[in-house]
Design a protein that fits this description.
Elements (H helix, E strand, L loop, with lengths): L1 H14 L5 H17 L2 H17 L2
Length: 58
């Protein structure tokens, strides 16, 4: 877990050095690392919020 957290931080730092598509790729990789840091329930909840969040708030 600590390695993934460190990787996410490092990827974000590297991304600040670029303003082109490489930045987007580094930020995507960071998001992937953060996704795997979440628990299974956290992933399920996030997916549910993305899918149904707007319809629940009505």
């Amino acid at each position: 877990m600590e390695r993934l957290e460190a990787l996410a931080v490092e990827l974000e730092e590297i991304a600040t050095e670029y303003s082109d598509k490489r930045r987007d790729h580094f930020l995507d990789a960071k998001a992937d690392a953060e996704f795997f840091l979440q628990s299974g329930f956290g992933r399920l909840l996030e997916g549910f919020q993305k899918e149904f969040g707007d319809s629940i708030n009505r």
